[in-house]
Amino acid sequence: xxxxxxxxxxxxxxxxLMTGCGTGTEPALKDDDRIKIVTTVFPEYDWVRAILGExxxxxxxxLLLDDKVDLHSFQPTADDIVKISTCDLFVYVGGESDEWVExxxxxxxxxxxxxxxxxxxxxxxVKEEEIAEGMQTEEHEHEHxxxxxxxxxxxxxxSLKNARHICQTLAExxxxxxxxxxESYQSNASAYIEQLNSxxxxxxxxxxxxxxxxxLFGDRFPFRYLTDDYNLEYYxxxxxxxxxxxxxxxxxxxLANKMDELSLNNxxxxxxxxxxxxxxxxxxxxxxxxxxxxxxxxxxxxxxxNDVEHGVTYLSVMEKNLEALKQALE
Length: 330
What we know:
Elements: H1 2-21, E1 35-39, H2 42-52, E2 59-63, H3 78-86, E3 89-92, H4 100-106, E4 114-117, H5 118-122, H6 160-177, H7 182-209, E5 214-217, H8 224-229, E6 233-236, H9 249-261, E7 266-270, H10 276-283, E8 293-297, H11 305-309, H12 314-328
Parallel strand pairs: 1-2, 1-3, 3-4, 5-6, 7-8
């Protein structure tokens, strides 16, 4: 119930902000003809950037989560709310972590704003949160009052197949906003989707060539979409949206025994991990971590514009994840 209270407080705050920052329905940047696009997480930002191509120079493109704040704990600033209110295209994930969005959109001053909710456009491709065997659960986690919707796994960007569908939709929405450049958007999207398809084929080939069809994470597990895409089994310490940081003795022992049982040579963690849980799991295997390695896969939940300036892209991250996956399946 604390989460709902935060949302109520935020709604009241947002109302006050919009009353003070705008008059009527005119956009704040009335004399700026640039298309204004706001995205919440890095993959959305990079997909839009790829579809814009050279037109990105004439676009105001914003990445909200640009300070390594996790999607699950993000709260927008007053400046963020103003940017959303006046933008032409707003792209967000749409899960429980984005409950603040509803209040922000109610105060939008651009009546022609196009809103893209990733979970909505993916429809039946979206998966409910899953608690796998041996995975530690939080107290009261996933309990829902009668009539409430199920919680969905928000990490939809970690599927190249999802990315393909999303990029096509983003191109179509940009065409509606800027029909004069529709051909450019469609051409850029088609070229980018070809790259997604090529990388998807590489993942499929890597899995097919490996005798192992299972991965184990000594960490949170935001990669369910990816493992499902390639029919991989998985074990993990926590679910992808878990706020837990300490694993129980039972979880450690279960995962260590699984590594021995399945003869796994490597254990995975996600970006930013201190690797303590993974290290403890390995210490409790029969080999005592002497020959096993800790590998990292990037969930792109903390990628920033500084990373972008240094050449990081959605495709480059997924290429690195492929290399880590290959090692994990050895």
